[in-house]
């Protein structure tokens, strides 16, 4: 007989992206066994980039500074998104033994069905209406715990979305579209009277129908920290999320830059050289396999800038690159693609 799942619903009126992302990460790390958590949250005017993305190429930092738009970096892979109050974010935090992407997406699809909107799962990490994306999703594991989070575009400002996101032309071409605006849809385009509160209510009901009655309903108030985690670890996570180093990384001042797009995502590689050897490397990507991407820079250090040697190093590391919590199934394909590419670059 399966153990009872404890269901927790968390909402907040906090609008600071660094605090909301810190809350999400803290709940993931400290998640209890046999617990299913739904966290619903919104950010004020923020571009959120994936774990391994390069902000200098993914978004227009100059316009963002002029318009007081914040930059945040999440702990999962995938591409850049723009958050405003026309967008609702959801986070499913579960034990890995009950984690199921189709089941979790089903919660969102069933919620919209309650509102009279028919949605479908598209590919690995999107949900669509009429072949246009209204929800982009990303995933992460920490030990035995899993995170599945995503956006729901309800009445987001698509003009500002296009203003701040500089999506590569390679990515646009690969999806057969012409612009950021043309590939997304707001729920209000289907149901003009829809509101964020209506969607919150529908998602909450669908989550309870799927996982069971709520054992705890928690609201985190921005004006009172009494319900916030009283833990120095949580404060440290906020500090990291709000830091320049985490959000921006280093300005890309490198001798060699390479860019390519594969079936699993786009990649940018930067090398700083000394006497023909690689002394510093950065790898940026919108791929969902963020664990693999994060390991790549260290592999290139002290290598000569010779394509066959770089390729051989990558192929040889397939056995040593192990122990990923999420990305083991993608490892051979990603490494092989990168190895073949670099072999032909130099």
Task: Give a brief outline of the structure.
The chain has helices spanning 17-29, 55-58, 61-66, 101-114, 158-164, 169-174, 196-211, 232-241, 244-248, 290-300, 307-316, 331-343; strands at residues 6-12, 35-41, 46-49, 70-73, 81-83, 87-95, 120-122, 126-129, 132-142, 145-153, 216-220, 256-262, 265-274, 277-285.
Residues in helix, %: 25-40%
Q: Can you give the mean pLDDT?
A: 92
The CATH architecture of the largest domain: 2-Layer Sandwich
Q: What's the total number of strands? A: 14
Output the CATH class name of the largest domain. Alpha Beta
CATH topology of the largest domain: BirA Bifunctional Protein, domain 2
Radius of gyration: 21 Å
| Biggest β-sheet strands, sense, barrel | 8 strands, mixed
Give an overview in words.
The chain starts with 5 loop residues before the first strand and ends with a helix. The protein has an 8-stranded mixed sheet, sandwiched between helices. By secondary structure, it is of the alpha+beta class. Mean pLDDT is 92; it is low at 171-179. Strand 8 (126-129) and strand 9 (132-142) form a beta hairpin. Helix content is 33%, strand content 27%.
What labels describe this entry?
eight-stranded mixed sheet; Enolase-like, domain 1; three-stranded mixed sheet; alpha+beta; globular; 2 domains; 346 residues; BirA Bifunctional Protein, domain 2
């Amino acid at each position: 007989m399966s153990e009872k799942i404890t269901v927790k619903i968390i909402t907040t009126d906090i609008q600071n992206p660094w605090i909301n992302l810190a809350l999400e990460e803290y709940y993931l790390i400290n998640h209890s066994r046999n617990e299913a958590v739904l966290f619903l949250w919104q950010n004020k005017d923020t571009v959120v980039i994936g774990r391994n993305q390069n902000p200098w190429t993914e978004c227009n930092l100059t316009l963002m500074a002029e318009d007081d738009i914040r930059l945040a970096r999440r702990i999962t892979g995938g591409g850049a998104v723009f958050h405003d109050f026309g967008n609702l974010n959801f986070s499913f935090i579960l034990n890995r033994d009950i984690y199921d992407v189709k089941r979790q997406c089903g919660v969102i699809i069933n919620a919209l069905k309650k509102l009279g909107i028919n949605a479908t799962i598209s590919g690995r990490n999107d949900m669509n209406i009429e072949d246009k994306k209204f929800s982009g999703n990303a995933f992460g594991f920490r030990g035995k715990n899993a995170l599945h989070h995503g956006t729901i575009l309800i009445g987001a400002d698509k003009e500002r979305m296009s203003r701040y996101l500089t999506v590569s032309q390679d990515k646009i071409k690969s999806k057969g579209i012409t612009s950021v605006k043309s590939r997304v849809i707001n729920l209000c385009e289907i149901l003009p009277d829809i509101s964020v509160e209506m969607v919150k209510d529908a998602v909450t009901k669908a989550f309870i129908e799927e996982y069971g009655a709520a054992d705890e309903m928690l609201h985190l108030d921005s004006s009172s920290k009494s319900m916030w985690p009283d833990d120095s670890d949580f404060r440290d996570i906020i500090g990291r999320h709000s830091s320049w180093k985490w959000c921006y990384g280093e300005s890309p001042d490198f001798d060699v830059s390479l860019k390519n797009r594969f079936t699993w995502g786009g990649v940018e590689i930067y090398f700083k050289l000394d006497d023909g050897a690689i002394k510093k490397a950065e790898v940026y990507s919108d791929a969902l396999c963020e664990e693999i991407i994060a390991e790549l820079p260290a592999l290139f250090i002290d290598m000569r800038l010779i394509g066959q040697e770089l390729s051989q190093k990558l192929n040889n590391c397939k056995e040593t690159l192990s122990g990923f919590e999420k990305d083991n199934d993608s490892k051979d394909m990603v490494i092989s693609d990168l190895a073949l590419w670099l072999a032909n670059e130099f």
